Amino acid sequence: MLLLKNGKILKNGVLVSKDILIDDKKIVKIDKNIQENVEKVLDLEGKFVSPGFIDVHVHWREPGFEYKENIYHASRAAARGGFTTAMPMPNLDPVPDNYENLKIQLDIIERDSVIRAIPYGAITKGELGKDYAEFEELVDYVFAFSDDGRGVQDANMMYESMMVAAKLNKAIVAHCEDNSLIRGGCMHCGRRSRELDLPGIPSVCESVQIARDVLLAEAAGCHYHVCHVSTKESVRVVREAKAAGIKVTCEVCPHHLISDEMDIPEDNGMWKMNPPLRSREDRNALIAGLLDGTIDVIATDHAPHATHEKDLTMRKAAFGIVGSETAFSQLYTKFVKTGVFSLDLLVKLMTEKVADTFGLPYGRLEENGYADLVVIDLEKSLKIDPEKFLSKGRNTPYVGEEIYGIPVLTLSEGKVAYKDSEVFDI
Ligand code: DOR
């Protein structure tokens, strides 16, 4: 048994002091001043305790791309960021499009992950958009179906997949990108791409496919979840689809909330991600979408790449930045400390709203619930230093930024998944 004394938890939006008693994988008691004779007692000295975060969008790269990242490092990076559940995307080699391929990934997760990881199954074989993945073989082991990294171009393939997913009671989680509208772009098509004289990806490349898909989801009766929405039109389409009673949900990434195209200082591939940083207006629409409930959850799109793939110009670099280790702190610093939204809302967007969106039994601190939690020092600050990342990926454009609200201890099913050894000796 482990007793956490003097932590502060959120109750109806207010921080209250509580002790938490953990037995093996579960929380057995949350109360004021628990007096129990247990082997281990840890004084949290008033630090904030949140349910462990859930990240429905990570690239853990294994099997297939271990030179960028692997499950050992990615899971430790996630735990350091306060995540206790993560859903790795299927753009792997082999792609988990049948049980045999998926089993390779499941076995490595079992061996190497320090947190709960529930992988996606692909929608199409090899994510090539031509033949269907083996949905029935995968269904018992996967979180949902996605071809993330690519849009499903063929409307009928998407429609049929949605009908099967609906029958299997799984969500279709879509990376929305109409290939005919990419136009060779490497950043958002807007003011900054014109200034830098670089080819741009127009906003419609994303929003047009979301508009198609919400109508397909309506016809198929499927839970349709949109990955990383980045444009104001996407937010509008989702808002209107929700109002029409369509089962659509969506996520936004920290970088799309924090930055926009005008923050890109020069032609530097470290700022390249897909979808790209959009306009200030788009960014404001994303924040408004979070506040009015159109956007359901925050997910990182943690996308590690090797240095030789990112230390390049915008045209040549790979799409993607890492996010697991800094997501909460960056959002806390940018939005909670400045009063744009509350700590309560930020935490919900990373915990219970994710659980409610996908029907997961995690994301809450409650008696009999899993002891998945993160202790955060809201006063502590640090400067982002990629050399200190636990991830193999060093690709962040936010080097040197000062962030507050630093996770110092993460427990996953009662086990220490991350600790700051300078703070806790456990
Ligand atoms: O920036 C991105 N990186 N966007 C994606 O959709 C894929 C991801 C990756 O796998 O690197």
TrEMBL record:
Gene3D superfamilies: Metal-dependent hydrolases (3.20.20.140), Urease, subunit C, domain 1 (2.30.40.10). Coiled coil: none annotated. The active site is at D301. It catalyses: (S)-dihydroorotate + H2O = N-carbamoyl-L-aspartate + H(+). One of its GO terms (cellular component) is cytoplasm. Its cofactor is Zn(2+). The keyword Phosphoprotein does not apply. Zn(2+) 1 binds at H57, H59, D148, D301. Substrate binds at H59, W60, R61, N91, N274, H305, F319, G320. Pathway: Pyrimidine metabolism; UMP biosynthesis via de novo pathway; (S)-dihydroorotate from bicarbonate: step 3/3. Residues 46-234 form the Dihydroorotase catalytic domain. Keywords: Hydrolase, Metal-binding, Pyrimidine biosynthesis, Zinc. Its EC number is 3.5.2.3. GO terms for molecular function: allantoinase activity; dihydroorotase activity; zinc ion binding. InterPro entries: DHOase, DHOase/Allantoinase_Hydrolase, DHOase_cat, Dihydroorotase_CS, Metal-dep_hydrolase_composite, Metal_Hydrolase. Binds 2 Zn(2+) ions per subunit. Pfam families: DHOase. Zn(2+) 2 binds at D148, H175, H228. GO terms for biological process: 'de novo' UMP biosynthetic process; purine nucleobase catabolic process. PROSITE patterns: DIHYDROOROTASE_2 (PS00483). The keyword Cytoplasm does not apply. Catalyzes the reversible cyclization of carbamoyl aspartate to dihydroorotate. Belongs to the metallo-dependent hydrolases superfamily. DHOase family. Class I DHOase subfamily. This is Dihydroorotase. The lineage of its organism: Bacteria, Bacillati, Bacillota, Bacilli, Bacillales. The gene is pyrC.
